[in-house]
Design goal:
single chain; mainly alpha; 4-stranded mixed β-sheet; two-stranded antiparallel ribbon; 3% strand
């Protein structure tokens, strides 16, 4: 089903856009999945409030280096998991879903063909959208609370119950997109001559692209209902397992996020210790992660086979509204560029460390000549907002709201989801950003990235719950553009030659992580899902595939040590959003080209850019890029974006 047709209400998980495994070595959480639940009668205390207090305490404790870190205020959604408004809204949703089914099921073809069919169908879509918005509010709240603390039993129960409740309610809505797609094309086109229905034309036309892959209603109903005990349950198991893992570093038991952070520590011994701790714990849990991976790959294979998808990634391409040949061209261009990008850069970095090769745990090590100071939160905030304001005051004003109104959760704390994301929630509310801020330069870039998403989500919200969501390929454009603005601002203000070199090298590393690493991830997923068709893969075999794609992408200057074969286990995108990862490379290369247009553009670029973001999901990416003179279908397009990275490496080589 369409990403727009099945937004928060119909899809049991409307996932926040996650940052990839770039900034912190692993990056990303893939989304806090909005779930659905019946209000469980649990403890009298509002657990969500307890989490906020604990987080605030953690922020103060960590304030010596980073300054006091903000904790999000979810009261704009609900005051706590015991809030009576949750019970009220769940009951309202149930009633609305049942009434919707009663009023419209079995009637779409006949009523849409009437003279007033356009107005009649527009009324149905408006009701459908209102239900979607309400369900999105419930699901988003549950998902965000769970992301804040995925190991608290009461919160986990709340998350699971809301998921089940939303799935049960949405069963009454499942008929609508399926039945709508069976209405004759000519009838739909005639009905859309009515202005009220023409407003929803982008959503309807997008929905109908899924028509060849939809199944008989009862099969769709079974797939939908069984998902709670199928892939959603395995997603949840992955989240809880990752959050509960502990890694022994320097005599301390650490969660995954601070352990991964050590891979960016200036002390090489700490980087090695962290990598070995990760390897040891992953090894001890490899059977669990192999089972999760095998089960989800098989689940997807079954669904793809029933729906008639030919390639393992075709369902993702359809969801992203991007043609397979465009993705194939991107992948081919990036893989062909490995030698002049990652291979060349890591060889250069090894020389900076006076080594022939770098161990895999040194891949993201701070450069010997980089500044060592921690960037406090207020300074990071100022860096990003200043960069945004230099581009567009309107863009900066929107980003400012995230700080002023506590839409950001920044501290690292036990049980919190790793990585970073910006969750759009629902148009009647506003986005929320999750980070694990530790004062590193990459954390500043992550803040710029997630606020780019946030600005995009705020601007697109006016399109409503059905047409605000943007395909992942374009969703990453806004985030990567926000990073580029911040980087260019910092680079322009840096006069010290060595610090300029460090800043430039840091950006190259981020771009390699966003482009090269993500395409390697995509190649890994393709190999795993393809081979899974012939039977289960052992953890050892999955590790062999992982090492193969990593060796190809990293080059000879990175020495892969024992234990790295299991580092595929913690990448959440493989679990939550199969084949999601190429969207990062798509967005990064696109932004490189887009930024080149900006640097040479006359007045009005910012207005055109914000208009592109405000379009949300109402236009195809090709239509949105046309005002900038860009065409992603041009075979040379991707080479142009990759040449920007190669040019930065050229500059670094001249610096010595």
């Amino acid at each position: 089903m369409s990403s727009r047709a099945s937004s928060s209400a119909l899809r049991k998980t409307a996932k926040p856009t996650a940052k990839p495994a770039t900034k912190s070595v692993a990056k990303g959480k893939a989304p806090a999945k909005p779930t659905k639940k019946s209000l469980a009668k649990g403890p009298a205390k509002p657990v969500a409030k307890t989490v906020v207090k604990a987080a605030a305490k953690s922020a103060v404790k960590g304030g010596i280096k980073t300054g006091a870190l903000p904790v999000w205020n979810l009261d704009d959604l609900y005051a706590g998991i015991e809030a009576p408004e949750i019970t009220r809204d769940l009951e309202q949703m149930d009633a609305d879903c049942i009434a919707f089914e009663t009023d419209y099921k079995g009637k779409l073809a006949e009523h849409t063909a009437r003279e007033d069919g356009g107005e009649w169908l527009a009324g149905a879509v408006r009701r459908y959208e209102a239900i979607d918005d309400l369900a999105g509010r419930l699901g988003s709240y549950a998902g965000l609370v769970h992301a804040g603390d995925s190991v608290d039993p009461a919160i986990s129960k709340f998350y699971g119950d809301i998921s089940e409740r939303l799935t049960a309610a949405s069963m009454h809505l499942l008929f609508f997109p399926l039945e709508l797609n069976r209405v004759d094309d000519a009838v739909i086109e005639r009905a859309m001559q009515a202005p009220a229905l023409d407003h929803y034309r982008p959503w309807i036309e997008d929905l109908r692209k899924d028509k060849p892959y939809q199944l008989e209603d009862r099969v769709e109903q079974l797939f939908h209902e069984k998902s709670q005990t199928g892939y959603s349950a395995w997603n949840r198991l992955f989240d809880q397992t990752i959050a509960a893992l502990r890694f022994k570093v320097g005599g301390k038991e650490l969660a995954i996020e601070p352990t991964l952070s050590f891979l960016q520590d200036r002390d090489g011994a700490k980087r090695k210790a962290a990598a070995e701790a990760l390897a040891k714990t992953f090894k001890a849990n490899e059977r669990t992660f192999a089972l999760i991976t095998n089960t989800l790959a098989k689940d997807k294979d079954i669904s793809d086979r029933w729906r008639g998808f030919q390639d393992v990634a075709d369902s993702r391409h359809l969801n992203n509204r991007v043609e397979r040949e465009v993705v194939d061209a991107l992948v081919a261009s990036v893989r062909a560029a490995y030698p002049k990008l990652s291979h060349r850069y890591y060889a250069l970095k090894a020389r900076w460390f006076k080594k022939k090769k770098l161990a895999h745990w040194d891949r993201n090590a701070p450069l010997p000549f980089a500044a060592t100071s921690t960037i406090a939160w207020p300074e990071a905030k100022d860096m990003v907002l200043t960069a945004y304001r230099g581009f567009s005051p309107d863009m900066a004003d929107i980003a400012q709201r995230f700080f002023d109104q506590r839409w950001i959760d920044a501290p690292v704390r036990p049980g919190k989801a790793p990585g970073a994301f910006s969750h759009p929630t629902t148009p009647s509310a506003h986005p929320y950003v999750l980070m694990n801020y530790q004062g590193k330069p990459r954390d500043v870039m992550t803040l710029a990235h997630e606020l780019g998403h946030g600005v995009h989500q705020v601007l697109a919200a006016k399109n409503g719950a059905l047409m605000a969501p943007t395909p992942l390929t374009l969703a990453e454009t806004a985030s990567v553009f926000g990073e580029m603005l911040t980087f260019k601002r910092l680079l322009g203000e840096t006069k010290n030659a060595k610090q300029r070199q460090a800043l430039l090298a840091g950006k190259v590393e981020d771009m390699i992580n966003t482009v090269v690493r993500q395409i390697a991830f995509y190649s890994f997923e393709r190999a795993v899902h393809t081979e899974r068709k012939n039977g289960e893969l052992t953890a050892e075999r999955i590790g062999q595939i992982w090492l193969s794609v990593q060796n190809e992408s990293l080059g000879e200057a990175i020495e892969i040590k024992p234990g790295y074969e299991n580092f595929w286990m913690y990448i959440p995108h493989f679990i939550h959003s199969p084949f999601y990862v190429y969207a990062y490379a798509f967005g990064d290369c696109l932004v490189n080209s887009l930024y080149a247009v900006y640097e040479h553009a006359a007045d009005g670029f910012a207005e055109r850019y914000l208009a592109m973001l405000a379009a949300g999901g109402t236009k195809h990416y090709s239509e949105l890029l046309r005002p900038f003179g860009l065409d992603a279908k041009d075979p040379k397009f991707w080479d142009g974006g990759l040449s920007v990275i190669a040019g930065m490496i050229d500059e670094l080589e001249t610096m010595g």
